[in-house]
Structure formats: structure tokens, C-alpha cells
């Protein structure tokens, strides 16, 4: 726990200072601490992606980052002092004491437990590739999961610090939990004085999402990071609309953050639809300079992600075959890509057989539904009821001729577009959980914000009651899980040093005199040896491009 907390203090300091540096470009806008933290995460992640194209994420990469942070800290020392002056009263209060207790609780979860399945399959191994090579051409041939190329793993590799400590820290997911939850707790203080409660309910949604994943806080899982960013963007968008007076700069920055979130997990790319609102306003007002600046920002974010995609897999967007423009020696064969994409879909639909990829929705939906646990079915029912409640509230506003809030409409479109893609492509609940939460929480927030009477009051109140009943088993499931976890983990010896990555059973083989590792049966691609693969059959159909591992891999 001690190492986890020290790591968080260090990550926070670096992210805040880097965030202050980038947001200082907006001279006429004041930002809260959460914006500096998010901006810092974005900049550090993009930096790590760029750096990894040319070299490994080790001591040199970190020294460059720290040098930049120290320079910014000196140049912006007055802003750093003002920020501390603003938040010091909170730190030195009972509220601050509560936050410290909460941080200790999350540190407990982050120091021990079980890793997410995909962390053992490829997250940890991909982080080690960042640390040892930066990038290996065609590494997706060795194991297709490497080609997913989540930029979150670049961020995790920066603060792994294996080069310094001799073992890897994996505290970034817990860090995101702390950042998002403290943002939610701090905002909920004003619940009683808020006229609109959509933002409040979204912040409660952040806390509920943390409850769902808290027992695996030490996993650098790309799903968790993506969903936290999705929840933050939706919440901050609502906060800007309903509480902060619709600051247009914030809409623009949140749109850039939405583009960045797609590099965490491309399945969240349609959240980028929120860009339409600031783009429409900027074009209407002919602010060409600002348009150019934000387009440039988006390009800077996407550039290293797309370049890495090309170098890792030979495809611009893996596993999407619609853009097939490259012919390289390290390109993953199209049949492997298609099989991988189909496998993701059929696994999400609980079919587990790629020959059933063309099964119509009417046939696979009942199978998928039957594979969900009871508490998951109840949760999905709550989402459906939340959608009905949203429709009823929208009809009421139209009937009363209330002013339509365009930013809110665009946000709804982005949320439902992502839900549609999630459902038809790969409906694992964890893949779209943030968007599903948003439907429920926004509906509840609208209900609490707008008074009604007569039959409408009875109908909407009944729906709210049904939503609460339907979603209760979901919370109960994860509250129980967290309680059992704490009871079973109290005696684990991780109060000073965090639990290490799982070792797994690995064997090795030689390719052109170079050692490559493979799992002997368990789905654990060990962090401790590299490069490696979980699947021997993928190794058998791959080979080196040249005589060294640094030259990369290709299909046989």
C-alpha cells in the first residue's frame, strides 16, 4: 500500500504540472484541478506513444518528461501556488480526512487481488514491450492482442518504473479511480443547492462504476481506463452545461478528450460525435484560427496511435479491414484479422463459434440474454426503463415548448450511437458499461430536476421506482464482492510493496538464435519474460523479419 500511495503522489504531481503547462495556453479560462489532471494524462500518453516509436520507455524517456515538468513548474510556479492555495483548505479539513481514508481504501484494493483476464493475456506483456523495445514491427503476428494498441498501456508504461525499481508498478488504474471518485465526491457536496441534478447523478454513476471494478484495481486494464474517461467526459459535459454556464472552451477541450479516448479503446470512438457541437459553433462564427488549433490537437493525438497501428500490425485500424492501404512484410494476414474480429463479435454475443458470425439478431439475442447473470439482466432492464423515462421527459419538454439544449442533444446522440455499436458488434456488458450507466443516471437526474404533476408524475415516479428496484441486485452483487475481498485479503503481505504480476508457466524456443517465450497452457503471457505469447499456435505461424528481435516479426 505504501508503494501504491507514493506512486499516486508522484503521478499526480507530474500530471498536474504537465496539465498546467498545456492549459496555460488558454489565458482567459480558469480550470479546476480535474482538468489539469486529465490534460496531463493526455499529454503524457501522447508523448509516450511518440517516444515509443523511436525508443523504449525507460530512464531516458522519463528524464525528458521530468525535465519538461520541472521547466513548466518553474515557469508556472505562480499558478501552482494558486492551485495549492485553493485546495489547501480542503486538504486540511474533515472533508480532506474523508478523502485520505478513501485513498487508503483504494490503495488496499490496488495493492493486491486478482488481475483482469486480459491483463494476464496481453496488458502486462504489452507494457513490458514498451519498456524493453518501445515498439516491435509486426508484434501483432506473435500475438494478435498486441495489435489492439491501446494508448492507455503507454501511459501505464511511463509509471511502471521497472527501470528504476527492478519490478513493475501497476497503479495507474487505481490512480484513475482516485481521481474520478474525488472529483465525484467533491461535486456532490453541492447536491442540495443544485437546481439540475443530471451532473450529480452522473457523479454517482462514477462511484458505482468504481464499485463494479474495485476488486481488480491493480490491473492496467484498457476497459477500465476507457470507461472512466467516457464517464468523465459525459459528466463534465453535463456539468459545463448545467452548472458552469456553458463555457465554450470546455466543450472544445472535452471534444479533444473524446478523440483521445478512442485511442484507449477504439470501440468508444463514436463518443467523438460530441465534436459536432463545438465544430458547428466555430464554423458558424467563422473562427478559423480556433478550428485549425483544435484540428491540429486532434491530429497530434491520433498521429502516434495510427503510426503505431501501422508498425505493429501493418493495418491503419486493427482489427478493421475496411482500410487496407499498406503492403508490408510485417502485415498481419487478412484472414487472421478477420478471424480475430469475428471472434470478438461471437464471444461478445456468447456464441463462441466464428461459424455463427452471420447469425441474425433474432437468433443470437435469446442466446446472449440467457448467458447473462440475473443481476445483469435486471441491470439491462433498468437501462431500458431509463431510456423510456428519458423519452417521456423529452416529450414533456417539447410539449411545454422548453428551449432545446443543443449540447445535450448531441451528447445523447453520442451515447446512443455507442450503445448501438456496442450491442450489434460485441455486447459484453463491460465493453459498454459507462454508456449504459449514463442512460440510467441521466434519466434519474432529469427526473429529479424537473417537477411534474398529474398522470405524468405518477408514470415517471413509477418508472423511477422500477429502475431503483431493477438496479439494486447489481449494486448488491458488487458490494458483496468488495466485502468478501476485504475479508479474504486482510492477511496478504502487501501493505508495503504491491503484489507483482502473475508469473505463469512459460517455455521458450529459438528463432534465428533469439529466444521467444510461450505459455504452456495457462492464459498468462508473463510480464517477467519477453517477448512472449499466450498462444503457441500464433508463435508457430510467425517468424522474425531478420536476424534480431528488434527487426520485428512477420507471418510465415
* Helix/sheet category: mainly alpha
DSSP strand (E) fraction? under 5%
The strands making up the biggest β-sheet line up spatially as 1-2-3
Q: Which consecutive residue ranges, at least 5 long each, have pLDDT under 50?
A: none
Globular, elongated, flat, extended or rod-shaped: what is the shape?
Answer: globular
Number of beta-strand segments: 5
Q: Which bin fits the share of residues in helices? A: 55-70%
- Compute the separation of the termini in Å: 46 Å
Taking all residues together, what is the mean pLDDT? 94
Secondary structure tally, helices: 22
Computed Rg: 24 Å
Write the layout of secondary structure elements.
Elements lengths: L1 H22 L9 H22 L4 H17 L1 H15 L2 H17 L6 H16 L6 H4 L9 H7 L3 H4 L6 H17 L9 H16 L8 H21 L5 H17 L11 H9 L3 H26 L20 H15 L12 H10 L3 H26 L6 H20 L7 H17 L4 H36 L16 E6 L2 E6 L12 E2 L2 H5 L1 E3 L8 E3 L1
Parallel strand pairs: 2-3
Antiparallel strand pairs: 1-2, 4-5
Helix pairs in contact: 1-2, 1-3, 2-8, 2-15, 5-10, 6-8, 10-11, 10-12, 11-12, 11-20, 11-21, 12-13, 12-20, 13-15, 18-20, 18-21, 19-20
Amino acid at each position: 500500500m505504501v508503494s501504491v500511495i507514493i506512486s499516486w503522489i508522484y503521478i499526480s504531481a507530474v500530471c498536474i504540472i504537465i496539465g498546467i503547462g498545456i492549459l496555460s495556453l488558454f489565458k482567459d479560462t480558469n480550470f479546476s484541478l480535474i482538468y489539469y489532471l486529465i490534460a496531463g494524462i493526455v499529454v503524457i500518453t501522447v508523448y509516450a506513444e511518440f517516444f515509443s516509436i523511436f525508443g523504449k520507455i525507460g530512464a531516458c524517456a522519463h528524464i525528458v518528461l521530468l525535465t519538461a515538468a520541472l521547466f513548466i513548474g518553474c515557469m508556472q510556479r505562480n499558478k501552482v501556488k494558486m492551485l495549492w492555495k485553493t485546495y489547501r483548505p480542503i486538504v486540511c479539513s474533515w472533508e480532506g480526512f474523508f478523502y485520505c481514508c478513501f485513498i487508503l481504501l483504494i490503495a488496499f484494493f490496488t495493492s493486491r487481488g486478482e488481475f483482469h483476464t486480459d491483463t494476464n493475456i496481453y496488458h502486462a506483456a504489452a507494457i513490458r514491450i514498451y519498456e524493453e523495445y518501445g515498439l516491435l514491427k509486426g508484434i501483432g503476428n506473435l500475438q494478435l492482442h498486441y495489435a489492439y494498441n491501446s494508448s492507455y498501456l503507454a501511459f501505464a508504461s511511463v509509471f511502471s518504473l521497472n527501470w528504476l525499481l527492478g519490478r513493475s508498478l501497476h497503479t495507474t488504474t487505481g490512480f484513475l479511480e482516485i481521481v474520478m471518485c474525488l472529483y465525484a465526491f467533491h461535486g456532490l457536496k453541492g447536491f442540495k443547492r443544485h437546481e439540475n441534478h443530471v451532473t450529480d447523478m452522473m457523479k454517482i454513476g462514477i462511484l458505482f462504476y468504481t464499485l463494479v471494478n474495485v476488486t481488480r484495481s491493480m490491473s492496467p486494464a484498457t476497459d477500465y481506463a476507457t470507461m472512466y474517461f467516457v464517464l468523465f467526459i459525459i459528466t463534465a459535459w453535463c456539468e459545463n452545461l448545467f452548472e458552469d454556464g456553458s463555457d465554450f472552451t470546455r466543450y472544445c477541450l472535452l471534444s479533444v478528450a473524446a478523440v483521445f479516448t478512442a485511442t484507449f479503446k477504439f470501440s468508444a470512438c463514436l463518443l467523438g460525435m460530441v465534436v459536432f457541437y463545438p465544430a458547428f459553433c466555430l464554423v458558424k462564427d467563422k473562427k478559423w484560427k480556433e478550428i485549425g488549433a483544435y484540428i491540429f490537437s486532434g491530429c497530434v493525438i491520433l498521429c502516434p496511435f495510427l503510426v503505431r497501428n501501422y508498425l505493429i500490425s501493418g493495418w491503419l485500424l486493427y482489427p478493421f479491414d475496411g482500410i487496407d492501404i499498406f503492403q508490408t512484410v510485417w502485415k498481419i494476414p487478412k484472414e487472421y484479422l478477420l478471424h480475430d474480429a469475428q471472434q470478438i463479435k461471437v464471444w461478445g454475443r456468447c456464441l463462441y463459434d466464428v461459424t455463427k458470425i452471420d447469425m441474425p439478431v433474432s437468433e443470437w439475442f435469446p442466446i446472449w440474454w440467457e448467458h447473462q447473470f440475473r443481476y445483469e439482466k435486471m441491470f439491462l432492464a433498468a437501462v431500458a426503463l431509463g431510456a423510456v423515462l428519458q423519452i417521456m421527459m423529452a416529450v414533456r419538454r417539447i410539449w411545454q415548448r422548453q428551449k432545446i439544449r443543443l449540447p445535450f442533444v448531441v451528447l445523447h446522440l453520442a451515447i446512443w450511437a455507442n450503445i448501438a455499436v456496442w450491442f450489434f458488434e460485441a455486447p459484453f456488458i463491460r465493453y459498454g458499461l459507462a454508456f449504459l450507466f449514463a442512460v440510467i443516471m441521466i434519466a434519474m437526474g432529469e427526473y429529479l430536476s424537473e417537477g411534474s404533476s398529474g398522470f405524468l408524475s405518477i408514470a415517471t415516479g413509477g418508472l423511477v421506482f422500477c429502475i431503483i428496484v431493477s438496479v439494486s441486485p447489481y449494486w448488491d452483487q458488487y458490494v458483496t464482492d468488495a466485502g468478501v475481498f476485504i475479508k479474504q485479503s486482510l492477511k496478504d503481505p502487501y501493505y508495503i510493496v504491491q503484489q507483482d504480476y502473475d508469473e505463469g508457466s512459460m517455455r521458450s524456443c529459438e528463432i534465428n538464435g533469439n529466444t521467444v517465450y510461450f505459455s504452456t497452457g495457462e492464459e498468462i503471457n508473463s510480464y517477467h519474460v519477453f517477448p512472449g505469447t499466450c498462444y503457441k499456435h500464433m508463435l508457430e505461424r510467425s517468424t522474425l523479419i531478420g536476424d534480431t528481435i528488434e527487426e520485428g516479426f512477420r507471418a510465415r
